[in-house]
């Protein structure tokens, strides 16, 4: 049995302003009408696959659960990282958990945000990798390069393995090269892009972590021993997990182990790690352009233009990226797509919330988005999914006024329970204990007007919460 392990801890900042820490690229539909997480999970459904194991940031737990539910992925378990520590601790947690149940089970480790166009070819490569994994190897998938890419690490393939057809030893790993070295690697014909997918048994992974990264394994073992199980969530012990070194599985194990192997593959893979790779992976329109959303192009060539709502017009541009969201606009030459991270770093240093947050903020009950903010007031739109409810709470610094614009609401205000329908409203004075619930079958939408001396999201005292946030 193959246990798919989906690593969903990335932030995808090179796809800013679409992908941000609060809502990274794996939760966006980038190549189809399904999100990248849903695309990834769908590749590992069917006979021979166990329900997936997803490792994600604790803040994203309800996003992951809801998107898997919407994709009809059943039986998934979700390991919650209390802090991001890179891929080695995340993989260690998955391997230890699976080992407790079946040491011989084979893990198929993959990022939640990669694009793969040829799934049958992927499954054929997986079968080759399985043979080597069952023999004690840690197998990665090496993508045959189609260009001198500087955004990927490379693998130099070695001799074929006699006991695993289609699998080769790994001669060495190569860091992301500069343009000249990338051209040389492409011309040499022996090098492959490092996809970051791995196949190995739980026992092999744990043994190699013990051998090459014992401090990682020790911290994660303690975190798993102190884990709490809540529905489909496995909450790792926070204090122990934070002591794990922040290190990738490549540095911790793959570059040191003598069990590394690679399956050369041609599966239409892209990590969608930059806007240039998004352009490359997308169907082209006239002039080699790629557009998404309300976009109009005039006399432009080779551009990637995306809008998440606002009409975006482009005239006379060539080989450019233009991305418009509700609160930010990015314009950058495609050849400099990797430099988006420099912009994000500058925004972080300046304390700009746009670096990490969207205007729409997701919560386990639905979402809210800021509309207007001024001196001592702000206006938000709140959407609550059917059957869901906010925490029972109060505020020390603000009062609120709610106006229902769609659906039905039940509002608890101190000792009273009040039913509100469309075009009805309620006032919640400062300090009152209140709760909002959607008892209906359709989403509840309301407008919230806050007023007070302090309007920060941390002015919430939760008294009771369905989602364990008290």
Automatic annotation (TrEMBL):
Ranges for domain MannoseP isomerase/GMP-like beta-helix come to 297-347
Alphabetic keyword roster: GTP-binding, Isomerase, Nucleotide-binding, Nucleotidyltransferase, Transferase
Domain named Mannose-6-phosphate isomerase type II C-terminal: residues: 351-465
According to the entry, every stretch annotated as the Nucleotidyl transferase domain falls at 4-284
The record's InterPro entries line, in alphabetical order, gives: GMPP_N, Man1P_GuaTrfase/Man6P_Isoase, Man6P_isomerase-2_C, ManC/GMP-like_b-helix, Mannose-6P_isomerase_type2, NTP_transferase_dom, Nucleotide-diphossugar_trans, RmlC-like_jellyroll
Tell me what reaction this enzyme catalyses: alpha-D-mannose 1-phosphate + GTP + H(+) = GDP-alpha-D-mannose + diphosphate
List the Pfam families hit by this protein, alphabetically.
ManC_GMP_beta-helix, MannoseP_isomer, NTP_transferase
SUPFAM superfamilies the record matches: Nucleotide-diphospho-sugar transferases, RmlC-like cupins
Q: What is its EC number?
A: 2.7.7.13
Q: What is this protein called?
A: mannose-1-phosphate guanylyltransferase
Q: Which organism is it from?
A: Paracraurococcus lichenis
